[in-house]
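USER:
Working in pairs, take the chain set out below, taking as long as you need, and write a paragraph about the fold.
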Amino acid sequence: MFATLAVLTLTLCPPQQVELHEDLQYSDAAPQPRRNRLDLYVPNKDAPPPVVMFVHGGSWTGGSKDQFGRIGELLAREGFACAVINTRLFPFAKPDAMVVDCAHALGFLHRHGADYGYDGEQLFVMGHSSGAHLCSWLAFDERQLAVAGVRREALRGAVLLSGPYDVRARHFALDGVFGADKALRRRASTWLYVDGGECPTYVGWAQRELAGLPLCGQLLCDTLRSHGVAVRSETFAGKNHANYIFQVGSRRDVVTPSVLRFLRAPGSQDAAERAAE
């Protein structure tokens, strides 16, 4: 389970060192073991840092942690441990099995902080597109946190980017994965779990977003705020659904500064957010 260790020397000023633990097996649920593995990036710090679990997008059907190492490196370079995870994918699993994978991964991170040098009591989840959907399900549904063995208090925040938080509407992309199972579609509509006990949440989407996703994001923000949950939201100007996440860490990165502000003070709200209320 404890995979080989590599050391990445990142070109910063001053230089910082990040330990990369590759292909850690967080669960044995998947028939293909690689679908239940994660890569863990840990900064070399005196005090154990918080850890962010990142879940990639891909319409629940594609994608891999191997495409998002830059996010793990960047967050570690900024003082946060980061685990970039795989889950099972459709058609080999439905989203209600994928969120269980996410719960097992979060539970692994919660238990193994001392082994890898981060604080397992300071957990964040972060996801893009279908990954944001799975992260919202994990963060808002206490039954999933129970699977993880994580208390609500240990989950310090959720970063949700371009996710579908209501999957009951008929749409070819949703129909292909969720089918005609109305009970599953309601169960997977994650904004319905909001009851006021949720962690602080950052919700972002692109200016040129896929149809319906800005509405989903605004619906989630409004619901969280109506229950007294601290929320930050942002529209990424000039970006589309896919390009902004692959530009993280580049000169065209519009996401990282505001996400880092949230991660460093998740319970507060930006002045613009407060003024809008």
Q: What stands out?
A: Residues 244 and 253 are 7 Å apart (CA to CA). The longest strand covers residues 16-25. Confidence is low (pLDDT under 50) at residues 1-15.
